[in-house]
Amino acid sequence: MTRGKQKIEAQKKNAEKNQKSKGSQFEARAVALKVSCPICKAQLANQNQLNDHYSSKHPKEKAPAESS
């Protein structure tokens, strides 16, 4: 069992370790959004969302084929 200064230092260390990172999530968003609409430049997560986007936003256009 720790006492005194050791206990306080251990508590601070655990608090820092368990604290969630704050700040922007631009990096995580950039990783998740991999497909973009060539017409309006909207970023989407996958090909299915791109197909849905085309059917609702660009109904006269044909959705591009999957590029992978």
Automatic annotation (TrEMBL):
InterPro entries: MBS1/2-like, SERF-like_N, ZNF706/At2g23090_sf, Znf_C2H2_type. It is found in: Cytoplasm; Nucleus. Residues 1-25, 48-68 are annotated as: Disordered. Pfam families: SERF-like_N, zf-met. This is C2H2-type domain-containing protein. PANTHER family: GEO09665P1-RELATED, ZINC FINGER PROTEIN 706. PROSITE patterns: ZINC_FINGER_C2H2_1. Keywords: Cytoplasm, Nucleus. Residues 1-19 have a biased composition (Basic and acidic residues). It comes from Acer saccharum (Sugar maple).
